Amino acid sequence: MATVTLDPEFPCSLLIHIPFPTQRLASSALRSLQVDEELSPLVTRAFSLVSQTQSTDAPPAAPSADTAEQNVLRVEYKATTNRMLRVAVNGFFESLGLIVQIMEELDVDVLHEGALQDLEGVQGVVKGKDGVDFNPIEATIASTHHDLFTGLTTCREVISSFLSRIEALNTHTNAVISTNPDCLVEADAADAPLAANNGNSSGRLFCIPTVLKDNYDASFAPTTGGCLALATSTTPNYNAPVVDALNKAGAIILAKVNLHELALEGLSVSSLGGQTINPYDNTRTPGGSSGGTGAAVAASFAVWGTGTDTVNSLRSPASANSLFSLRPTRGLISRAGIIPISYTQDAVGPIGRCVEDVAAIALTVMASVGNDEQDNATALVPAGVRGTDYTAHLSAGSLKGLRLGLVEGFFNRTPSPENDPVNEAMANNTSKLANAGATIVPIADPYYNATAIADLDTQRCEYRESMDAYLNRPVMSSTNNASVPTSLHDIYAIPPGDFLVISSQYEYVRTALVSSTSNATYNAIQAGIRNLTLYLQQTFTSNNLDALIYPEQKNLVVPIGSPSQSGRNGILAALTGSPVVTVPVGFTESTASAAEGVPIGMEILGRSWTEEKLLQIAYQIQDIHRVRKTPVWARHEVVVKAYEDVSVVEPDRRDISPAYPVGTLGET
To answer: Pfam families, per this entry (predicted)?
Structure first.
């Protein structure tokens, strides 16, 4: 192997050509590393040096040879690997195992003692069965499957690595309510066919660590909604149909995660789970109500997770945690077996770290439930939509020809430290979309005002009826425990004080307890929703739009102790049943409490049943504007335990702000 003279930039220029199969991926990596991709002389020189290195027929030096050549190779290995690892943390490499393959292609002996020492202690790395490494940080479905199916790791090792992260790091964010005691048994069961089939296995989500929002029924734990009054309820004797679909696809449920109590708001605080903390800024909430899912996925406690959305609850935590989510068209995914709020507005969907995972593979599996007699809305799905593989047509492509409507009424243009970063991130993103060929169409129609549209919210009329029906389902195991609520009224009455309602919702809950779909106003509300839906369709048609875009939240995600998660824009999709993909578009500047800044997200709303188109747009945005970063503390190395049994993780209820008193509806 030829001796080469290195300079500090050589490893980076080498990075351009060797690890990345396409110029597109190389460009993304260069942007992440803040390297000028137009450094043509350096690129040319790098090609020349790589050619020298790879063209020699000389055998590599023996591991013990202390020669000048070997010293150069060690320097080259360490410098290049360190640069590669920086990119790997940001999600450009599928796994550390792939980095090892790349080093082999570079003709650097990765089995040299010094080389192995260089790999030891890398953040998040798990030592595999053959000494190869699995990195759970920012792991994707594809990267996890790569390491499993090439024999670099086992399903037990994958699950153990994520369990170890939960056990060691959950105190930073308080996202997890309970762990699945059976997840290691399920991992061992997955390893048997994996070994027998020489690394082949079926299932889109085979051995993919997943977290469930704790309003999904699963047979390993009670469904609590984060409410102490439901903590002693009977464990369901069945799974929600969506959970069955995940299990059938091979997913392994690691844990149930916190949410805003009963999914009624966006602060992600509950009487059972306490306050979930934003992993990027420990003074702020993580959005919600699916804030536990958002925080857990952002911190790499799982590859992806599930959420629900009655007004904002899939999109708010995606925006606040630099993640992707998809709220599907009403009816695409069954809502059966999930704590309800509103027949009209409830939806379920995925949250994850990339479009491919969240909106494609996970959505494909969740939608595979199909027509479910327990959820009449699923009968509305057109025949041509059923069975869609949402991964099939994802490609970088081009934004040229797309017409995106920018909803001006969903911004707050009043200058402030909370509004300005959102407006700046949106302006930057919109500019990038236009430069990539999209036509941005201003939609200044005053009809699109999120505060005014919220007058059509159906929750007050539908909540009590839907919750009473859920709590009285015959599929629940029988119980003789008189303290277990069987109605919404019971939750706020027995046992006394075992609930949390924030003060801004006192009037809402008190009204819901005496309201129903028989209210005189309910028919008028539904008529208003039909008019809104028609008006939205006319907006698409008259402007020849492919999608609408706007910030998920007009301001930054609110601090802990705030009276509500103000400024969110999710109501339009919630009322009209339209599909929406949320994508990260930026961060604020670094602050004392937010080393990476506070994340900011954007919604992409489409016509009903256009999930494929929205995912394609999101995929292209991800390609031209990759902004996701790992929270600083979540990059820390975690020693992976050799588990015999799954550790019990207890949520911290001591961190509930005095602004959120437990056990009162504000009665005088």
So the answer is: Amidase (PF01425), Pcc1 (PF09341)
Confirm if 612 and 143 have CB atoms less than 8 A apart: no
Reduce the DSSP state of residue 134 to 3 states and report it. strand
- Please report which confidence band the pLDDT of residue 480 belongs to, taking 50, 70 and 90 as the band edges: low
Handedness of CA 58, 62, 63, 69 (dihedral sign): negative
Taking the C-alpha atoms of residue 537 and residue 606, their distance in angstroms, rounded to an integer, is 10
Looking at the structure, tell me whether residues 168 and 86 fall in a common domain: no
- Model pLDDT, residue 395: 84
Average pLDDT over residues 476-497: 76
Which residues form the catalytic set? 213, 289, 313
> Could you give the number of structural domains in the chain?
2
Q: Give the list of residues 6+ apart from residue 289 with CB closer than 8 angstroms, or none.
A: 259, 260, 263, 264, 265, 266, 268, 308, 310, 313, 316
- Is the residue at 19 inside a domain? yes
Looking at the structure, do residues 231 and 85 belong to the same domain, yes or no?
no
Q: Are residues 474 and 613 in the same domain?
A: yes
Is residue 640 situated within a structural domain?
no
Q: What is the pLDDT of residue 26?
A: 46
pTM of the model: 0.83
Could you tell me how many helices (H) and strands (E) the chain has, helices first?
22, 15
86 & 167 share domain: no
Q: Is the peptide bond before 495 cis (omega within 30 degrees of 0)?
A: yes
Print the domain residue range for 567.
155-635
Residue 566, pLDDT score = 98
Is 403 among the domain residues? yes
Q: Is residue 57 part of a domain?
A: no
